[in-house]
Amino acid sequence: MEQPAETFLQERKELLEMARSYRQSQILFTCLELGIFDLLAGRWLPAGQVAAASGADERAVELLLNAAAALGWLEKRAEGFSNAPLMERHFTPGAPGLGRRLQLESAFYHRWGNLTQAVRSGKRPPEDRRTTQAEDWVKTFIHALYDAAAPVAPVIAAALALPEKCPLRVLDVGGGHGGYSIALAQRHPLLTATVFELPQVVPVAREIIAKSGMPDRVFVQEGNFQQEDLGSGYDVVLVFGVLNGEPPAGRPVLIRKVFNALNPGGIIVLRDAVLEPDRAGPPEAAIFALQMLLATDSGGLDSRADWDAWLRSAGFSPARPLVLPECIGADLVIATRPPG
Ligand SMILES: C[S@@+](CC[C@H](N)C(=O)[O-])C[C@H]1O[C@@H](n2cnc3c(N)ncnc32)[C@H](O)[C@@H]1O
Fold it and tell me: Distance (Å, rounded) from C-alpha 88 to C-alpha 91?
C-alpha cells in the first residue's frame, strides 16, 4: 500500500534528525571541554567574558552559548548566560562527577567514528588502541567509572543484603576504583575487601580508596587474573563489568577461578550488560556489544543462558537474578558455591 506523502516526509525528517543527533553530543562535549558550565555556575556572564575565561574565540563562543541556550542547557537574558537548573545540578564543580564520566564519553565518541573500519576488519581500530595507551587514559577511565559507580554502589550494597555483624571477606575482581568495595565496607563494619587489579590501575585505586576513608578495610592486590589464581577464603566475590572485556574462552575460566577462591557457601555476584537470547537486544546491550568491538581485542557480551551454563559447569548452585531499580543499570546475578 502506498504511504501518504506526509507520512513519508515525516519519516524522512525523523531519520535525518536521528542521523544528526551527534551534533548535540559534540556541543555538550565542547561546553564541558571549555569549562562553560563551571564558568556559569551560579552567575550570569556575557559571551565576551566566557570567551576570555575559556581562552576561546568570542564570536564562536557566542554561537556555542546560543546553541546551548536553544537546547535548554543555558538560560539567556540581557546580562548574558547562566546554567539552566539541570546543568547546574549535574555539571558544576560541587556536583557528583557526571562531567568526568562525559569526558570518557567524549573519547568514546571519537572511537565510534571508526566503526565502519572496525566492522570491515573485525578488529579494534589501531587508533583506538593508541588512545588507551596514552599516559592519562587509565586515570581518566578509572575516575570516570568511579563517578558512575559512586552513587549506585550504596544501593547495590543494600540490595545484596549480606549478613550483618559477620566478619566477611570480599574479593572485587577487576574492581577498578574500588567503589563497590568501599560501599560494602561502609555498610558492614566487620567486612574487609580486596580489589584485585592490574598494576597500572593499582595507584589510582589506592588514591580513591584513601580518599574514601576506608584504606584500613579495603585493600588493593596487584595481579592479572588471566595469569594468576585469585587466592582463597572469600565469602563474596564481585565480578562487575569484567566479563565483557575478556575473550569468549576466558569468561568461563574466570568463573571457575572465582569458584576456587570462594569458601563453601560463598557467593559470586555478576554484573554486566546481558543480551537477549537472540542477541538483538535490549538496545543498550546490543549497542554496548558493538562498543566492545571498538574498545577491546575480543571482548563482548553474553546471554543469561551463557552465564548460567558457565556457573553450572564451575559447580555453582543455580543462579538467581537480583533485580535493581531501572536507574541503576544492569541487574545482578548471584550464585552460591554449595556448602560442604
Ligand atoms: C570496566 S572496568 C570495571 C571496573 C569496576 N568493576 C566497575 O564495575 O566499575 C574492568 C576492570 O577490570 C580490570 N581488569 C581487566 N583485565 C584484568 C586482569 N587480567 N586482571 C585484573 N584486572 C583486570 C581493568 O583494569 C578494569 O579496571
Answer: 6
